[in-house]
Amino acid sequence: MAKTTKKQTRDSHLTDLEKLGGVILLLIYLALIPLCGAAILNWAGGLLGFSIGPALRQTIWFYLLFAAVALVFHRFLFVCAGTFTGSAGRSFQTLGTALIFFYGLNEILFRVTHLLWGHTINLNDTALVSLDLLNAAPAATVLALVVLAPFIEEVLLRGFLFGWLRQHSRAAAYLVTCILFALLHTWAMAGDHFTLYYLLIALQYAVPGLIFAWAYDRSDSIWIPIAAHAAVNALAVWTFYA
Length: 242
Fold this sequence. Notes:
The protein is globular, with a radius of gyration of 18 Å. The chain is an all-alpha fold and about 240 residues long. The protein has helices at about 1-10, 15-50, 55-70, 75-85, 90-115, 130-135, 140-165, 170-185, 185-190, 195-220, 225-240.
């Protein structure tokens, strides 16, 4: 009976309204913004009579999505906060384990791909963010990387999509969210030429995708993968500036 109750609790986090909002926001984040986000804001800027640069565009989209995600999933976030505080020891243990495995597995994957194919990008050492954006608006870009992006991506990919798919198939939940996470972080860099080089980068991004999903699956609190994601990005940014 206890096992059934736990499963019902885990799988009943999301309401129908949250699922609908999650689908819309995920489509906006994965498709609308990459494909025509710049055109939309340029059009809006033209109507208002001023130009919107790349740094400002990124900031606007992240703030809009952050607000929308927080509004749609406020109940879910509150439930997860209770789960986090209710088992703080397990939560911090999961967070620490996730970070250890992230850096360990990612380093192993980098060394193997470097040995076999001469792959030179290591996500442990490189922020993989636009230098132009960091130089043009460092404070806004760092805020987006360390706070806004981890919050948006973890709530949508892990809290919403993984949690929804997990009700039907845990394996499918891991597979789909890891693939989407990897593609989300590589197709902008690859452009029209998704070569083996970018496939290797995508494989590296599958590592954090897998670990963040595991952190949510084990803790049942979205705040754990948010914290892990934010810590990884913060260290990457710090490495960039060091």
